[in-house]
Design goal:
With 111 residues, the protein is mostly helical. 63% of the residues lie in helices and 4% in strands. A two-stranded parallel ribbon has the order 1-2.
């Protein structure tokens, strides 16, 4: 199961969803949805700069709200650059954005 969903099986996991993988299909970089394509390269190119930037921002202002927002945006970038982006992934990301909003209200002193 793990090899198949990571694209390492005899037939790769199909390229689909709402992410940037649709550009790989539209531009004809693969012949069909089951072909191999190095999505790990795009994931590193997107996620690594975000990770470095968010770690620096977190060091400057270490709050639960920032951690939640940084995590959500990092996941969005990582999943967008991956082989597939499901709707349920977006729900998970939205949940962390909501946690960030509520945590920000909790972190702010009462006025």
């Amino acid at each position: 199961v793990w090899r198949w969903s990571s694209g390492k099986g005899e037939t790769g996991y199909q390229i689909w969803g709402w992410g940037g993988s649709n550009f790989v299909l539209a531009l004809g970089l693969v012949t069909d949805r089951f072909d191999q394509w190095p999505f790990w390269v795009t994931q590193v190119l997107v996620a690594l700069p975000l990770l470095v930037w968010f770690l620096r921002r977190q060091q400057l202002d270490n709050t639960l709200a920032n951690a939640s927002w940084h995590y959500a945006v990092l996941l969005l970038g990582f999943f967008y650059a991956s082989r597939f982006l499901n709707e349920n992934y977006l729900g998970f990301i939205l949940a962390f954005l909501a946690i960030g909003i509520f945590a920000q209200r909790w972190d702010d002193p009462a006025t």
